[in-house]
Design a protein that fits this description.
Elements lengths: L1 H4 L3 H8 L4 H29 L4 H32 L1 H10 L1 H10 L6 H9 L5 H24 L1 H18 L5 H27 L5 H10 L9 H24 L10 H26 L1 H4 L6 H11 L13 H5 L1 H6 L1 H19 L7 H20 L19 H31 L6 H6 L5 H4 L4 H6 L4 H11 L10 H9 L11 H6 L9 H15 L14 E4 L19 E7 L5 E3 L8 E6 L5 E5 L14 E3 L24 E5 L5 E5 L3 H4 L9 E7 L2 E13 L4 E8 L13 H4 E6 L20 H9 L5 E4 L5 E4 L3 H5 L9 E5 L5 E10 L4 E8 L18 E6 L11 H11 L8 E5 L4 E5 L3 H8 L5 E5 L2 E13 L5 E9 L2 E2 L14 E7 L2 H10 L7 H16 L1
Antiparallel strand pairs: 1-2, 1-6, 2-3, 2-4, 4-5, 7-8, 9-10, 9-12, 10-11, 13-14, 15-16, 15-18, 16-17, 19-20, 21-22, 21-25, 22-23, 23-24
Helix pairs in contact: 3-4, 3-7, 3-9, 3-10, 4-5, 4-8, 4-9, 5-6, 7-8, 8-9, 8-10, 9-10, 10-13, 10-15, 11-20, 12-13, 12-19, 13-18, 18-19
């Protein structure tokens, strides 16, 4: 598999130096520490300022002043980083997360390093260039943090420590906030200050990606400690603890000439550590070309610096050749421990010599011996600069300057990679696959060219369903590769389309890219759309094909014509205005409510309706397709004879009230050339008709199709009527006289309760059918048992003002009927709203209700009686399948889908027979289609993981490539032929006949069979 050879998501993160979860958590903890330190300083300053002791009172105000100064310094540092040095980076982050940026900017006024935590959270390995800049910006902030700590942490530590000394010396109670402040400041000095000093000393403006790569190439790393180093550092740590205890227990040591021995010991220990820290930072600065790799493990480096102040041997863990490289600087590092050892040996010798001393003599002797051994070890360490203790050869060392140069190269590569990913996002967004971007990038597919390597099987392995994978593969597959790949550009140039902006794109990308050519002038965009339509004409409208503005017409699975009503498509072309993909991505508006549906505006009727999209090449009858791609039918009305205007010739665009009483909203064709084909009147003409009662005036509205007579007629709004109607029994041109011409106001859809296209949307009807929750049974007029859902939510989808149990009355004939609820129509296999007319034997469907809603009034409500619900055979089968979820034993291999990929099935006879009533291998026929045979294969999970029954289909000798799911099969009359096929033999026959199945015509045949069964 190609996927297995690509780096994993974690590997990509590591390669780019992206922060891990542990690093982000660590930086968050440091952020909390910084904020705590600031808050504790404020708390301590307040406690001292409110003290009734004058010295503490002054120290409180001094601490507050230091905080104000540090805030000003921190704001200057923030401005320098965010507005000057890294302005572009922070501007981009601010656009993406303005609220977070504002909050952290405010918090960073307490300590600039708070911003490091924010940058860590915003780091994204899919944005390599930004990731590089973030890592460098974090290092710059840490360098500036040294300045901040100089103005805040060190002075605050001194102030609060002095306040503790005052309290102890005067016997005052030490305030708790002061102790908390000292702890915070001490932690900041030991952890942050030392770490920032190390960062400043190295001063490498390179990202972690560069450092990681070069450190790995040169095997530069912090080595694990050996036993000798651990022992030497442990001896010095033990000596420090013992010496402090000795000084504490001894009290003022009476040295000759009244020299304060205890004070000398404290000063010697303190100054030795300060000198050690100073020399270590200077050493790091001098050897920055050999120690830059420690920036990758800054916290560990801080620990080594801390232990290095006890014994320089700890520093050799950064580089095992450090003493050799350090030279005389190694000797300087030994000065601090040596001064500490000599001083303590002198004090301990005096204590041993004294006959009376506060510390037990045995303890003094032990400490004297140990300090002597420690001093000897320090002196012996001088020889390490003359000998190489490591066995590793000296590698060619990259200097910091070379590291920074390498970082620049990686930055350029990162910028190129980020541009590729950006183009990939735009490419996927064009086809509605933007939801897959992160997944593809994490698997190493960073460019459009990489996508052509993917197969449907690999996409399924990555987590896509079979339908999504096949659709994706189809959309991304390159076409017309080779020498003829640019032939389509010649065609476009011959049409008059500028092809400069199309260079570098394949014909497939130009055909299916929704945003391709948007930069072209309007006329050239139209020519490009015309070329697209011509090349895609006749294809089933699937998610692989659909685009905004595309011309479509009814397809092979069209099922929306209702007898006695105007065909909603007018038997003509329409335009795609919106759709919702199977991944729930919306294009255009208003979008359908169900995934995999498209909204079309029909040119003839002006209706906007939703229809089913196909699902690509691997159609499993889970969704029929209602539409196909078409080219606009250019109709010249000049060639149409008067009186021969047909429905397909119309273009209804003008909304008006239709019906002389209780009108509904409808659209009319008001074009002059169209109206002339019916009668010699124009839109807005006021005409008079002489009758026995006198002259009747009316206004000509337009022409509209009359489904009763199946003719296009002219409609007029007569005085005193509620809307437009027809004249009957007269010759319009002979009996009507034009008396004036007026402007006619167009009606709005929301002004009228009813509309000619006001029935339930097709996708909403499908949603209702899929989500029915029957609560009672009811008899239909034909005596069929209806399983009725009486919920208000389902009834509301039918765009009516009624609810279950409402008794409504017709204002025309005063007929009454009761709204029952929603149930599936057994003859059409679709959801319908059912009413029981008073005196009728059962419930029925009112087909034209959406056009006559204003006639009906609710007069009362009587809840429909509940009844027992009998489980249908389909529900029984579904229950058995649901019980098998997780209990299938799929062991039998069989070809599957239109491409015949291998899949496993559960073919246990007892299990399959319990579900279907037949055993695997049973051959069934479809009533009315003798040539169509369905062979039962077995049970396996569908795309959603639910157990389903799979069939192999043959029709007139055409053998399909694999097994498929046939939904709603319970609505088809299947007959057992008595034949049983051996599935192993059938599998061999299928493989021997690969490529002989056309696939799509077979789909259409079975869809037609299912549809004819339902209509029958």
């Amino acid at each position: 598999m190609r996927i297995a050879s690509r780096p994993s998501y974690q590997a990509i993160h590591a390669q780019r130096g992206a922060p891990s979860g542990a690093q982000v958590a660590k930086e968050a903890c440091l952020c909390v520490l910084c904020i705590y330190d600031f808050v504790s300083d404020v708390w301590a300053a307040r406690a001292n300022a409110h003290s009734d002791k004058e010295p503490l009172h002054i120290l409180g105000y001094l601490g507050a002043a230091l905080l104000m100064v540090s805030c000003v310094v921190n704001m200057i540092i923030l401005k320098c980083v965010t507005r000057v040095r890294r302005q572009k980076l922070f501007r981009g982050i601010n656009e993406v997360a303005p609220s977070q940026f504002y909050i952290f900017s405010c918090l960073a006024c307490s300590n600039p390093e708070v911003m490091c935590s924010f940058l860590m959270m915003r780091a994204d390995a899919n944005r390599p260039r930004q990731l590089q800049e973030i890592q460098i910006a974090i290092r710059e902030i840490k360098e500036y943090g040294l300045v901040s700590q100089t103005f805040e942490d060190i002075p605050q530590l001194v102030v609060q420590a002095y306040s503790v000394v005052l309290c102890v010396s005067h016997g005052w109670k030490v305030p708790v906030p002061v102790v908390a402040s000292i702890c915070g400041s001490l932690a900041m000095v030991l952890v942050k200050l030392l770490g920032n000093c190390f960062v400043v000393a190295v001063s490498a403006t390179a990202s972690n990606a560069s450092l990681s790569q070069l450190a790995a190439d040169q095997n530069r790393q912090i080595v694990p400690p050996n036993s000798l180093t651990v022992m030497r550092v442990s001896i010095q740590a033990g000596l420090l603890a013992g010496n402090i205890m000795f000084l504490y227990e001894s009290g003022p040591i009476p040295l000759p000439m009244q020299v304060p021995g205890q004070l000398i010991g404290v000063v010697a220990i303190t100054s030795s550590y300060m000198v050690s820290f100073l020399f270590m930072i200077l050493l790091v600065r001098r050897l920055r070309d050999k120690l830059w790799h420690a920036l990758l493990h800054l916290e560990l480096a801080v620990v080594l610096l801390f232990f290095g102040s006890l014994h320089p041997a700890a520093l050799s863990l950064m580089d095992d050749k450090l003493p050799l490289h350090a030279g005389c600087w190694w000797v300087l590092l030994l000065i601090g421990p040596a001064v500490r050892g000599v001083t303590m040996i002198a004090l301990l010798s005096w204590a041993v010599w004294m006959s009376i001393f506060p510390v037990p003599e045995n303890m003094c002797i032990i400490l004297l011996v140990l300090n002597g051994l420690g001093l000897a070890d320090i002196v012996a360490s001088v020889d390490e600069i003359m000998s190489d203790q490591s066995n590793s050869p000296s590698p060619v060392v990259f200097t910091v300057a070379q590291v920074e140069a390498e970082d620049e190269r990686l930055n350029r590569e990162a910028a190129e990679e980020e541009e590729m990913i950006k183009q990939l996002e735009e490419h996927l967004n064009q086809f509605g696959f933007e939801a897959y971007t992160d997944m593809l990038v994490s698997e190493g597919f960073h460019s459009r060219e990489h996508l052509t390597e993917l197969t449907a099987a690999e996409l399924v392995q990555m987590g896509l369903s079979q339908q999504e994978a096949t659709s994706f593969e189809t959309r991304m597959r390159r076409v017309n590769a080779g020498d003829g790949a640019q032939d389509f550009l010649v065609q476009l140039r011959n049409l008059g389309v500028s092809t400069a902006i199309l260079q570098g794109r394949s014909e497939y990308e130009v055909l299916y890219g929704r945003d391709v050519g948007q930069e072209l002038p309007l006329r050239e965009r139209r020519l490009l759309m015309q070329w697209r339509q011509e090349h895609l004409e006749g294809q089933i409208l699937t998610e692989d094909v659909v685009m905004l503005g595309m011309s479509v017409r009814r397809g092979p699975s069209w099922r929306y014509d209702v007898e006695g009503a105007t065909p909603e498509d007018g038997e003509g072309e329409g335009r795609v205005v919106a759709w919702r993909t199977s991944a729930d991505q919306v294009r255009g508006e208003p979008a359908p409510s169900l995934c995999g549906w498209v909204r079309v505006e029909w040119l003839v009727t002006g209706y906007q309706k939703c229809y089913r999209l196909g699902v690509g090449t691997d159609v499993t009858f889970a969704r029929d397709c209602d539409l196909v791609v078409a080219t606009e039918d250019k109709i010249d009305l000049a060639e149409v004879q008067k009186g021969e205007l047909q429905l397909k010739h119309m273009r209804c665009t003008f909304g008006y009230r239709s019906g002389v009483r209780f009108p509904h909203y409808a659209k009319f064709d008001i074009r002059k050339e169209a109206m002339e084909k019916v009668a010699a009147f124009q839109h807005g003409d006021t005409v008079e008709h002489q009758t026995e009662a006198g002259a009747v005036r009316s206004v000509c509205i337009g022409v509209k199709y009359d489904p009763d007579d199946r003719q296009v007629k002219m409609w007029f709004h007569s005085d005193g009527k509620d809307g437009a109607g027809l004249y009957h029994g007269i010759d319009l041109e002979r009996d009507l006289t034009i008396v004036a011409r007026n402007r006619v106001g167009e009606a709005r859809r929301d002004e009228l309760e009813a509309a000619s296209d006001g029935e339930i949307e097709h996708d909403d009807r499908e949603w209702v059918r899929q989500n029915l929750q029957p609560s009672l049974t009811y008899k239909s007029l034909a005596g069929q048992t209806l399983r009725v859902d009486t919920s208000a939510a389902k009834i509301a989808k039918f765009k009516v003002k009624f609810k279950s149990g409402d008794v409504i009355q017709d204002a025309v004939d005063h007929e009454r009927m009761t709204c029952i609820g929603v149930a599936v129509n057994p003859s059409r296999a679709c959801a319908e709203l059912w009413f029981h007319v008073q005196g009728a034997p059962g419930a029925g469907v009112s087909r034209g209700l959406h056009k006559s809603l204003s006639r009906y009034t609710v007069i009362s409500n009587h809840p429909v009686q509940q009844g027992e619900i009998e489980e249908t055979p389909a529900e029984k089968m579904a229950a058995v399948l649901e019980a098998l979820n997780g209990n299938l034993e799929c062991t039998f291999h069989f070809p599957t889908g239109s491409i015949g990929h291998d899949a496993k099935y559960d073919v246990r006879q007892d299990v399959v027979k319990k579900v279907t009533g037949w055993v695997p291998g049973t051959v069934l026929s479809v009533d009315g289609h003798a040539d169509m045979k369905l062979t039962l294969v077995g049970i396996r999970p569908d795309d959603k993981g639910a157990p389903a029954v799979w069939w192999h289909i043959e029709d007139a000798g055409v053998c399909h490539a694999g097994a498929r799911i046939v939904p709603n099969l319970e609505g088809v009359d299947l007959k057992d032929t008595g034949k049983r096929r051996d599935l192993e033999e059938l599998k061999g026959e299928i493989r021997s006949r690969v490529g002989q199945s056309a696939g799509l015509p077979l789909n259409e045949m079975l869809a037609a069979a299912l549809l004819s069964q339902r209509r029958g």
